[in-house]
Amino acid sequence: MLVSLLSGGGNEMKRHLILFILCLLFLSACATTKPTPQQEALLQLEVTAKPTPQQEALPQLEVTAKPTPQQEALPQLEVTTKPTPQQEALLQLEASRPITCSQGQDCEVKWGRALLWVQDNSRWKIRIANDTLITTEGPRDTTDAAYEISKDLTDKGIYSISFHAWCGNRFGCFPSISELQASFVNFVKGPMKTPPAVIEKDATTEKTKFGVRIANTNSSAANILGMKEPKGVIIISVVQDSVAFSAGLKQGDAILRFGDKIINDVQDVQTAVAKTKPGSSIPVTIWRSGPGEMVILTQF
After folding, report:
1. Which segments within 118-232 are labelled E, that is strand?
2. Domains and CATH numbers, the chain
3. How much is the pTM?
């Protein structure tokens, strides 16, 4: 019909009317055109690109969320340095040294030092402190140890001081029980003016100042050091600026021979050092983890 009107000889008004109708039809068609599948997908992305209220809250939760007490405890345990297997073996050797005392001043000094150590190292209040027993409160679910120290009369007529520690945390105690017991033993046993009980396990004399604390090698320490069997004595600690320190002896070395003398136990070292004259140069055969057997020259 529109084609016939345009092709006919109508007046100018009709032509304008027809053109106006065609424009309206074109605009109507443009308005009703559906988007292609690609356009529809883009429109959906634009609509859903904004996060929901729940999604908007997620970043805020990640930033502001505080760790639980259990989560806070884990980094702390990772940060605190644990003893290596070799250090643990040395600590156990040192911690295993017995603490004994005779009646009178000997026991008074050592028992007094035991109480002082607990006061300085326990985060729990002391519950009992008498002539034979020291106990603390605790433990709760922390890494802080509780203590029980006892003094018992043995069948030999001397007293034995025993150390017990434990904690309620499933990750263990910090410091470790071995570290605590080694610290306790060292503090209680000396050094002290009367009696000098620490000399019993220290290869140091006033004349020579060899400067090592030693213990008999056991199978655990030998295994860690790579020894086929326990031999000699293990150096637990070295005194700075001593003969041993200057010669290069280190914690964890096993002394196998002192000069020509084969070392079997602590007493052998003490005897050999006591016989050494100032100014002597003594070759000391040791076993060191890694290199194995080696000779170090000491200058007294």
Report:
1. 126-129, 133-136, 146-153, 159-166, 212-216
2. 83-195 (3.30.310), 202-299 (2.30.42.10)
3. 0.41
